[in-house]
Amino acid sequence: xxxxxxxxxxxxxxxxxxxxxxxxxxxxxxxxxxxxxxxxxxxxxxxxxxxxxxxxxxxxxxxxxxxxxxxxxxxxxxxxxxxxxxxxxxxxxxxxxxxxxxxxxxxxxxxxxxxxxxxxxxxxxxxxxxxxxxxxxxxxxxxxxxx
Length: 147
Fold this sequence. Notes:
Elements: H1 3-16, E1 26-32, H2 38-48, E2 51-57, H3 61-67, E3 78-82, E4 85-88, H4 93-102, E5 108-110, E6 130-134, E7 142-146
Parallel strand pairs: 1-2, 4-5
Antiparallel strand pairs: 1-3, 3-4, 5-6, 6-7
């Protein structure tokens, strides 16, 4: 095969193939209690699902969550900021993806407590996880998703 024919064929093959766009990882900043290990598991879970996670230990977690609009009764184990939203607790990635694609006018979402079997937590899931939408205006959280 002549060099010119090969180059022309390779160029045509490249142009005919579908172009794939490589999405940049979504950046996330996760605030956690310095002694908490399950938060590291959640950060690893996010990384496995395409997020670029910066973990920041803090002793002011409750204040960070409260300032982000998460009432104390709805706070999770850690607080993550992703693309302008707060994600509090062990929220499954499919719910985060839903949030980022829908872009609702809320402060963010939360999975209160530390439910067994949730991403980053040990144990077996014993029931559905109820994820709540939170606002910064003090309105009561509402159900955003159940998984």
